[in-house]
Specification:
By secondary structure, this protein is α+β, with helices and mostly antiparallel strands. 35% of the residues lie in helices and 32% in strands. Helix 4 links the parallel strand 4 and strand 5. The longest helix has 16 residues.
Length: 160
């Protein structure tokens, strides 16, 4: 079945948080300490509260759904860096691992793609994600920082 993209609504907080947690496990599991990842994912209520807050006040999120199940999401908004290289930041594109390589990530990107330059942060060790973003026109700009929450290095990529 071809996934359907739709805007996230207030009623999607619990399913969205569960999706987000599952995507983190699949995407970051190979690159970060498993115990640290487990600790970050343990408090499901915190993830749901975060999704509720972001759905109410943050930029719009686009969800991907197949057979009634959420399988991916994307969100972009104002850059959060102190001295941003671009006015817009891609906060997230996640799909379940079963959907990697299917074109769903590109569809999600197209759904949130800004008309202006855009930046993002990606785990330095995640060659698959870095290659995906490079195919979308992003390139590393030399910025690098430790993402303390996962004790992993990130690099910034920018799309003009």
């Amino acid at each position: 079945m071809t996934p359907v993209l739709r805007a996230a609504g207030a009623g999607d907080a619990e399913a969205g948080a569960a999706l987000h947690r599952a995507c983190w496990r699949e995407a970051y599991g190979p690159y970060v300490d498993p115990l640290l990842l487990d600790q970050r994912l343990a408090d499901a209520d915190r993830w749901v509260a975060s999704w509720r807050h972001q759905l109410a006040s943050g930029p719009p999120r686009v969800l991907a759904e197949a057979d009634g199940e959420l399988i991916g999401f994307a969100v972009a908004g104002p850059a959060r860096d102190a001295d941003p290289p671009a006015p817009i930041e891609l906060y997230a594109i996640y799909t379940r691992a079963a959907w990697w390589g299917t074109g769903l990530g590109r569809r999600l990107w197209e759904a949130v793609r800004p008309e202006r330059p855009c930046s993002l942060w990606v785990l330095e060790a995640n060659a698959r994600a870095r290659a995906f973003y490079a195919r979308l026109g992003f390139a590393a700009d030399g910025a690098r920082e430790l993402y303390a929450g996962l004790d992993a290095w990130e690099i910034r990529m920018v799309r003009p």
